[in-house]
Design goal:
Elements lengths: L4 H12 L6 H8 L7 H13 L3 E5 L5 E5 L6 E5 L5 E4 L5 H11 L9 E4 L2 H7 L2
Parallel strand pairs: 3-5
Antiparallel strand pairs: 1-2, 3-4
Helix pairs in contact: 2-3
One zinc ion binds next to loops.
Amino acid sequence: MKNTKHRSKIIDILKCSNNPLTAEEIYDKCVKTENMNLSTIYRNLKVLNENDVIEKAVKQDGTYCYMLKDNKHSHLLICTKCKKCIKLYECPVYILDEKIEKNTGYKLQSHNLEMYGLCPKCRKNENV
Ligand SMILES: [Zn+2]
Ligand SMILES: [Zn+2]
């Protein structure tokens, strides 16, 4: 894969962000410095995804968000109100894995889990 200027810019933006970003959010962040349009970003995101540099997740509203692929096991926690999502590096179900292996005889290799809730900001607005 050729590491073009655009691609390294997208990687930089994702590196600086703690949250997975949508293509529009990436666009917002780089529009001031680079002359990249949204379709360039989509095209580059697709290439980066195909090359396993980034990963793609679907948010509850059906939009895609992107994050750098790291080898650390993580889960997404997504706000149901504002759709802000963060990565959780604690695995809430790893204890279950052992139990499931014991009960089923399967050797578990991976699992997926997305959690939904209200972020601190939305909690405050909703008073919950
Ligand atoms: Zn929220
Ligand atoms: Zn896990």
